[in-house]
């Protein structure tokens, strides 16, 4: 929840675009055996695709947040990137410009740029005993996918809250594991054809663990990254956007555990097991995110 509120603190009071960039399944084998390299190439591709598009077509700057996901409801390996971008941009003469269309990005051109830039990023990679020539040629002939949806400004928090549920998870949430009898795990999932209907499936314990491990990322790898004026190094530019949109913000609040506890109306310091509430006696500055308790 801390991540959700701190990101929402920076969000502009405009409509946003929620985009999902999907890597072709033909890249799955390469990605599984070279996660850090392929995932980094994916992030670089998204950065180049979006920033260069706005610079080329509008001569402006944008800011966006990207979140890497690698799983679907059935825990299969499905690499995709969720991106949230304002439906507008900061012009080179420092004016906020609202998109004149439903979507700041033309769908056909965006998909084509995504395809070209990802292939370019992959071509830069060097692996021992792996020749990517055949794979890259195959990727050029495929239809790539980007799903885009306009999110009205009063629904942006709901979108961030939804993405927040997956921000630091891996493969599956605890509430979807219905049962484990020591040999088989029963999990719930939603069928893409009938998303309103929950279904269940049984997985052998070893198969469950195998699927779970597919989604572990390399140590210290950041699954969430911010670019353009959403980057921490461009705080002044983001504040400029807020000033142009008259939000009154002069800084962005850092949230502590106590702040989050109050916002969600839940006493996160109460232990149901021992029926005792921890007492806060010292709290470090919010950027350190430390809270000390008397027990």
User: Order of strands across the widest beta sheet?
Assistant: 7-1-4-3-11
- Tell me the count of domains: 3
Class by SSE composition: alpha+beta
First and last CA, distance? 24 Å
Relative strand content: 25-35%
Mean pLDDT: 87
The number of helical runs is 9
Helix fraction, binned, reads: 25-40%
Parts with pLDDT < 50 across at least 5 consecutive residues = none
Order of helices and strands: HEHHEEEEEHHEHEEEHEHHEEEE
List keywords for this structure.
295 residues, alpha+beta, 3 domains, five-stranded antiparallel β-sheet, three-stranded antiparallel β-sheet, 9 helices, 15 strands, 35% helix, globular
Task: Note down, in words, how this protein is organized.
The longest helix has 24 residues, at 35-58. The protein is built from nine helices and 15 strands. The chain has a five-stranded antiparallel beta sheet, with helices on both faces. A three-stranded antiparallel beta sheet has the order 2-5-6, covered by helices on one side. It is an alpha+beta fold and 295 residues long. It has three domains: 2-171 and 214-253; 174-207, no CATH class; 254-295, no CATH class. The protein has helices at residues 2-10, 28-33, 35-58, 107-123, 133-140, 156-167, 205-213, 235-244, 257-264; strands at residues 16-22, 60-61, 63-71, 77-86, 88-91, 96-98, 145-151, 177-180, 184-190, 198-204, 224-228, 270-271, 276-277, 279-283, 291-294.
């Amino acid at each position: 929840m801390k991540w959700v509120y701190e990101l929402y603190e920076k969000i502009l009071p405009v409509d946003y675009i929620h985009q999902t960039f999907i890597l072709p399944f033909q890249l799955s084998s390469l990605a599984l055996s070279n996660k850090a390299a392929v995932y980094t190439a994916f992030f670089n591709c998204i950065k180049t695709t979006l920033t260069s598009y706005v610079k080329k077509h509008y001569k402006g700057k944008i800011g966006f947040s990207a979140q890497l996901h690698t799983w679907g409801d059935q825990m299969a390996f499905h690499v995709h990137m969720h991106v949230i971008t304002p439906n507008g941009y900061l012009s080179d003469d420092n004016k906020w410009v609202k998109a004149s269309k439903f979507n700041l990005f033309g769908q056909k051109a965006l998909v084509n740029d995504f395809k070209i830039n990802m292939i370019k990023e992959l071509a830069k990679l060097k692996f021992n005993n792996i020749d990517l020539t055949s794979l890259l040629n195959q990727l050029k002939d495929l239809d790539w996918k980007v799903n885009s949806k306009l999110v009205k400004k009063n629904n942006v928090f709901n979108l961030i809250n939804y993405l927040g549920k997956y921000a630091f998870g891996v493969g599956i949430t605890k509430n979807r594991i219905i049962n484990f009898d020591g040999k088989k795990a029963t999990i719930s999932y939603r069928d893409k054809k009938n998303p309103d209907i929950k279904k269940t499936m049984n997985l052998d314990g070893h198969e469950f663990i195998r699927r779970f491990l597919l989604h572990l990322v390399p140590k210290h790898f950041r699954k969430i990254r911010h670019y353009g004026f959403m980057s921490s190094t461009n705080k002044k530019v983001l504040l400029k956007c807020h000033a142009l949109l008259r939000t009154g913000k002069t800084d962005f609040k850092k949230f502590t555990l106590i702040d989050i506890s109050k916002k969600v109306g839940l006493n996160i310091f109460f232990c149901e097991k021992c029926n005792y509430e921890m007492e806060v006696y010292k709290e470090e500055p919010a950027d350190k995110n430390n809270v000390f308790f008397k027990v």
